[in-house]
Specification:
It contains 11 helices and no strands. By secondary structure, it is mostly helical. α2 packs antiparallel against α3 and α3 packs across α9. The chain is globular, with a radius of gyration of 20 Å.
Length: 268
Amino acid sequence: MTVLPLSRARWAAADTAILTRRTLAHWARRPGEVLFGLLFPVLLLLMFGYLFGGAMALPDGADYREFLLPGMVAMTMLFGVETTYTAVAVDTARGVTDRFRSLPMSRAAVVTGRAVADLLHSAVALAVVLGCGVLIGWQPRRGPLAALAAVALLLLLRFAMIWLGVYLALLLRRPETVAALQILVWPLGFASNAFVAPATMPGWLAAVAAWNPLSATVAATRDLFGNPGWGAGSWPAEHAVALAVAWPLLLVAVFLPLSVRRWQRLGR
C-alpha cells in the first residue's frame, strides 16, 4: 500500500511525540539527575560571577555579571551536546535502538523524538539560568521582543548541538567515549568571546575565537539583551546576529540528514 506524503508526515509526527514522551518519562523517574543538570550551569554562573568577576576589567567599567550571563547561557547550550551524546549512545549500546528499528515506525522518529525532548529540557535549563541571572542583578535592557530573539538564537544553537551529539553517538556507539567528546567541547567553548576578548589571544587563536559559532551566538545575545560586550572590530563581530543564525542552520543542514542516514544504516 502506498503511503501518501501527508499521511507519512502525520505518522512521523505521531511516532516522534511518543518517543519524546518516552524520554520525558525517563527523566520523571530520575529527578535527581535532572535537577543536577539544571543546577550545574547555575553553579558555574555563580562561581564565575563572584569568584572571578572582581579580576575582570571590562570596557567603560561595565558590570561583569551582565557581561557574563549571555556567555554562560550560550556555553550551557553548547555543553548540552554531551547529554544528548550519552543518552543516544546508551540506547544504542543496550540494543534499544535496534528494537526500535524492528518496529513499524517512522525511521526518523527515534532521533527526532530525542531532539525534541532535549530541546524542551534545554528551554527549562535556559529559563533557570536566566532566572538566576535576574536574582543576581542581570537584566535584559532592550525590551521583551529583543530578549525573545536572543532566547530563540540560544535555542537554535542548542538544536544544532543536539544533531551533532546524535550523529556522533550513532557513529561511535559507546557511552564511555563521552570523555573524549568533553576534551573537544570544553576547549571549543573557552576558545570564544564568552569570557575574554579574542583580541587578547595569539593571532591564530583569535581567528578561531572570532569565527567560533559560539562567539557569534554570544555576541548576538549580548547585543539583543543590551548587555556589555567586547565591541566590534572584526567582520564576525559586526555581523554577529547573521552568523548566529547561519552557523546553527549550517550545522543542522549537515548533521540532521547524517544522523537519520546513520540510524537507518545501523547494523549493516
